[in-house]
Design a protein that fits this description.
two-stranded antiparallel ribbon; binds zinc ion; alpha/beta; 16% strand; single chain
């Protein structure tokens, strides 16, 4: 395919593997909470999606309610998932819960939201930006990617979320990004994990897909597989900016996407 053909190719994205039905508080799963997500998925043309609430809200997750939702919406694939954070206060309990419920979960995202401060996610906007003030950005990036490798090494995740979230407030390291991220991509490849293409970055101060173009290129060279993700915190955000993502994937020649069932990864053509 020529570059011109690639740039005009139209992919139809059909899966969203990063969604938060509970938002940012514990809300017990019920049909009233979940059915709007199924309705929105259908409206957005999505046939496969995963619920991935933050592990600190794991008490809200109810697998029976997910089963009921599946029965009521047989045209959709609905995956039970969770986002495992590196939350120094809550995530030990989250890890235990994931181990206990591993067989009921289809998909686990691994995420780094915490740097040195245990009480504030560095990706809070705008407050988290203060954690970068007066510090070496290259050193923060190195520390961030070390923490990504730690989450990947737990053996409890299928896919890494927003791989370069550290750029969220627009801080860029002086060094070429490949030199900072290559060790982490090697690690992800060696453990056969996926990474997500997340449109959430387009809603943040950095205004750039997670991960950025150079990291996508390096991941492709390694043969790492991708999920598509919106990180929706409201059902109205499901599949947010997927047409732009589809265009970018066409430009890169990414013609396959992966989905998960009971942690088994399947590659599907777009
Ligand atoms: Zn996250
Ligand atoms: Zn999330």
């Amino acid at each position: 395919m020529t570059a011109d053909q690639a740039s005009t190719a139209k992919y139809r994205l059909f899966s969203d593997y990063h969604t938060h039905p509970q938002g940012h508080r514990v809300q017990r799963y019920t049909q009233a909470l979940l059915q709007p997500w199924a309705d929105s998925a259908r409206r957005a043309g999505l046939t496969d999606s995963a619920f991935t609430d933050h592990d600190r809200y794991h008490t809200g997750i109810d697998f029976d309610e997910i089963d009921r939702l599946r029965e009521r919406n047989p045209d959709l694939r609905i995956r039970a998932g969770i986002e495992l954070d590196n939350d120094p206060i809550h995530s030990a309990a989250g890890r235990n819960w994931i181990e206990k419920h591993w067989d009921k979960l289809d998909f686990v995202l691994g995420s780094v939201h915490f740097l040195d401060r245990p009480d504030q996610m560095f990706d809070s906007v705008p407050g988290g930006a203060a954690q970068f003030e007066g510090r070496s950005i290259a050193a923060i990036y190195a520390d961030y990617f070390r923490r990504v490798r730690e989450i990947a090494a737990t053996g409890l995740v299928d896919c890494l979320a927003h791989l370069d979230l550290v750029k969220i407030h627009g801080h860029r390291p002086g060094a070429e990004i490949g030199s900072l991220v290559n060790e982490t991509l090697d690690f992800i490849r060696a453990r056969n994990l996926a990474i997500e293409l997340s449109t959430a970055g387009w809603r943040k101060p950095v205004n750039e897909l997670y991960p950025g173009d150079r990291i996508i290129e390096l991941a492709m060279e390694q043969g790492i597989h991708f999920t598509t993700a919106s990180d929706a915190h409201s059902h109205a955000q499901l599949g947010d900016k997927f047409p732009s993502l589809a265009q970018k994937m066409a430009n890169f020649g990414i013609g396959q996407i992966c989905v998960f069932e009971q942690h088994d990864r399947m590659q599907l053509p777009l």
